């Protein structure tokens, strides 16, 4: 009988607890929005146009991005900027959301206290956002990183005239060799080439297919060409630019199997080569 009394007492306490929780006759959650409405807001950057600042052409370099809001009505948005994660400062204030923000490179350099000579490829600015609503100020957890880089536009098919082919076979032609080479843009200043040796493999040097592979690439960073591409045999090629003259680009090259040659690439699109160079 003693055990039964204890059991009933426990049930009674439990029922009392349930009764207390259910004393509000309103449907569950009916007044939640009134009592627990989230405060504040954030802005979200999107639709970034260009995506980097061109240190080779700062006067004409700019980016743009859209800002949309989430949460309370936003009365103003402070756009903050920092350089390589340090020295955050106010860049501008946006009075209406949604909005499109336009940022010139010269304006952002002025905001971070840098000149174009003081930034290099790999540096970046980060935009952060602080919004004001009727509830106060709130810092958005969304940021936008914009690197400093250079625009590259070397993709295309070009005529070549190759001379001075060398190979360990000793059977290379003495007359100039002509043909075309295609540089395919891989993005980020990286290009895949259809022939690292500009016709050398196809001559009596080797009587072979063009020197290329899925890794037959070179890179262009602010007009500096770096070649570390490999052909179908895993041979690495090195380029040295010897002259840039309007639509003509002169290159000397060699690989690590003692192949080498000189080539002049000519553009047929009516453009001149940019001031490309190598170490």
Structure described in brief:
12% of the residues lie in helices and 44% in strands.
Task: Explain the layout of strands and helices.
Layout (H helix, E strand, L loop, with lengths): L1 H20 L10 H5 L4 E9 L3 E2 L7 E10 L4 E8 L2 E9 L4 E6 H8 L11 E10 L2 E4 L4 E6 L6 E11 L10 E11 L2 E4 L23 E5 L2 E4 L9 E9 L2 E8 L4 E7 L13
Parallel strand pairs: 2-9
Antiparallel strand pairs: 1-3, 3-6, 4-5, 4-7, 7-8, 7-9, 10-11, 10-17, 11-12, 12-13, 13-14, 15-16, 16-17
Defining key terms:
mainly beta; 3 helices; single chain; 8-stranded antiparallel β-sheet; 279 residues; disordered N terminus; 6-stranded mixed β-sheet; 12% helix
Question: Could you explain the architecture of this structure?
Answer:
The structure is a single chain. The protein has 279 residues and is mainly beta. The protein has helices at 2-21, 32-36, 105-112, and strands at residues 41-49, 53-54, 62-71, 76-83, 86-94, 99-104, 124-133, 136-139, 144-149, 156-166, 177-187, 190-193, 217-221, 224-227, 237-245, 248-255, 260-266. The strands form three sheets. The chain has an eight-stranded antiparallel sheet with strand order 14-13-12-11-10-17-16-15, with no helix packed on it. The longest helix is centred in the first third of the chain and has 20 residues, at 2-21.
């Amino acid at each position: 009988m003693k055990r039964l009394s204890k059991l009933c007492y426990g049930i009674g306490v439990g029922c009392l607890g349930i009764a207390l929780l259910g004393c509000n006759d309103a449907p569950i959650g009916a007044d939640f929005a009134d009592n627990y409405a989230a405060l504040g807001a954030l802005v979200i950057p999107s639709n970034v146009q260009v995506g980097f600042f061109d240190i080779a052409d700062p006067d004409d370099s700019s980016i743009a991005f859209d800002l949309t809001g989430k949460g309370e009505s936003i009365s103003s948005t402070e756009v903050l900027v920092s350089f390589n994660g340090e020295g955050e400062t106010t860049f501008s204030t946006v009075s209406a959301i949604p909005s499109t923000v336009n940022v010139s490179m010269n304006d952002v350099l002025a905001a971070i206290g840098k000149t174009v000579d003081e930034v290099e490829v790999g540096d970046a600015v980060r935009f952060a956002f602080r919004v004001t609503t009727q509830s106060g100020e709130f810092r958005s957890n969304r940021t936008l990183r914009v690197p400093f880089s250079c625009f590259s536009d070397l993709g295309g098919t070009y005529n070549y005239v190759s001379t001075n082919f060398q190979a360990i076979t000793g059977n290379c032609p003495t007359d100039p060799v002509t043909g075309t080479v295609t540089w395919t843009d891989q993005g980020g200043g990286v290009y895949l080439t259809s022939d690292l040796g500009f016709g050398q493999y196809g001559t009596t040097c080797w009587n072979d297919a063009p020197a290329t592979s899925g890794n037959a690439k070179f890179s262009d960073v602010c007009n500096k060409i770096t070649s570390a591409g490999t052909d179908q045999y895993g041979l690495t090629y090195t380029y040295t630019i010897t002259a840039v003259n309007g639509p003509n680009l002169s290159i000397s090259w060699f690989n690590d199997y003692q192949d080498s040659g000189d080539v002049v690439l000519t553009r047929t699109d009516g453009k001149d080569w940019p001031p490309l160079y190598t170490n």
